[in-house]
C-alpha cells in the first residue's frame, strides 16, 4: 500500500517550493492558468516541475487528485 502523503504542503515540497500554508496561499494568489491550458504547460514551472505534474496526471497516481485540485485553484 502506498502511504505517500497527499496534501498541498507535500505536493509543494515535491515540487521544491515553500510548503508553508502562507507560501501556498501566496503562490495560488499570484499565479493563474490560461483558459484551456494544462497545468504543466504554465510558464511558472521549471522543466522538472512540469514533468512531475504531467506524469502525475497521466499515471493517475496518488498525486493526481491534488494536481487536479491545484489546477482548479489556479483557474479560480
TrEMBL record:
This is DUF2789 family protein. It comes from the Bacteria. Pfam families: DUF2789. Gene3D superfamilies: Uncharacterised protein PF10982, DUF2789 (1.10.10.1130).
Amino acid at each position: 500500500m502506498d502511504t505517500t502523503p497527499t496534501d498541498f504542503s507535500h505536493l509543494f515540497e515535491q515540487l521544491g517550493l515553500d510548503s508553508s500554508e502562507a507560501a501556498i496561499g501566496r503562490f495560488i494568489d499570484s499565479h493563474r492558468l490560461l483558459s484551456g491550458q494544462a497545468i504543466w504547460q504554465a510558464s511558472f514551472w521549471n522543466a522538472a516541475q512540469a514533468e512531475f505534474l504531467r506524469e502525475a496526471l497521466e499515471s493517475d497516481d496518488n498525486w493526481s487528485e491534488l494536481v487536479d485540485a491545484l489546477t482548479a485553484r489556479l483557474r479560480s
